[in-house]
């Protein structure tokens, strides 16, 4: 089914009380009586996140200001973190959230060399544009943004026209405990949930779909199209956005 919107959510340094604990404490960690257990052990985190549908992403091995490091140390931070995560969660890690949200052009080049295809920043655009620069990925907003629900309603209620749109929310779950405002994300989730015209996807799912879409091959007159990818893709014709097309992997289609 074609959906006119897509929605992504990203977090980093994830921790809280009972809702989404932080990775991770060493196995055998003993907490003082009466403290809130905010950290999972390695084995607990593997149980919770492996195969869960959550996307695992690099965040720097030691959470440094990457732009302040020499290039060889940046590469070590990225590759060692990626290696650890891939071995722990039995997945291929292809994305990143910049620690502290800071980066420069050298940092971005290092992401490419490390085989990472996107880097989430902390920049809020208040827009729903599909990303043009995935290595400098901007979010629509942070969950503490006072415009959160206004943006959500705008996203849902406005007709997108010929352009696909993305609502990208980022934040840290520990902030809900610190600010005593779990109601913020619960209200947002209740409003955005279970809509037939929204695709709820991870960063890498959206990235892969857009890469596949850009590989569609059109004839000179635009009347034929070929899908060389393994993805089922959806699109409209520019002159008639009421006509919806679906092209299967390996399919030629006359428009």
From TrEMBL:
Query: According to the UniProt record, where is the region Disordered?
Result: 1-31
Question: Which keywords appear in this protein's UniProt record, sorted alphabetically?
Answer: Signal
Q: Which domain of life is it from?
A: Bacteria
One GO CC term, this protein? extracellular region
Q: List this protein's GO terms for biological process.
A: carbohydrate metabolic process
Any single Pfam family the record assigns to this protein: Polysacc_deac_1
Named from the GO MF annotations, one term is: hydrolase activity, acting on carbon-nitrogen (but not peptide) bonds
Localisation per UniProt entry = Secreted
Does the record's keyword annotation contain Signal? yes
Domain (NodB homology) spans 51-118
Gene3D superfamilies tied to this protein: Glycoside hydrolase/deacetylase
The cross-references to PANTHER family, in alphabetical order and at most eight, read: POLY-BETA-1,6-N-ACETYL-D-GLUCOSAMINE N-DEACETYLASE, PTHR34216
* Entry protein name: Polysaccharide deacetylase
State the organism named in the record.
Answer: Parablautia intestinalis
From which lineage does this chain's organism come?
A: Bacteria, Bacillati, Bacillota, Clostridia, Lachnospirales
